[in-house]
Amino acid sequence: MNTDVVIVGAGPAGIFTALEMLRCGAKDKIVLVEKGQSIENRHCPKEKTHKCMNCKPNCHITTGFSGAGAFSDGKLSLSYEVGGDLPRLIGEDKVQETIEYTDGIYLEFGADTHVEGVGNAEEVKEIRKRAIRAGLKLVDCPIRHLGTEKAQSLYLAIEKWLQEKGVEILFGCECTNLILDGNKCLGVAVTDGKKDMEIYARHTVVATGRRGADWLEHVCAQHNIAHEPGTVDIGVRVEVRNEVMETVNEVLYESKLIGYPRPFKNKVRTFCQNPGGFVSQENYDNDLAVVNGHSYKERKSDNTNLAILCSHNFSVPFNQPIAYAQKVGELTNMLANGHILVQRFGDILDGKRTWDKELARSNVRPTLPDAVAGDITAAMPYRAMMNIINFIQAADEVVPGFAAAETLLYSPELKFYSNRVKMDTHFVTNVEGLHCLGDSSGWTRGLMMASVMGVLMGRELAGRSEL
Question: Which of 26, 184, 290, 353 could join 465 via S-S bond, C-beta 3.0 to 4.6 A?
Answer without folding.
Answer: 26
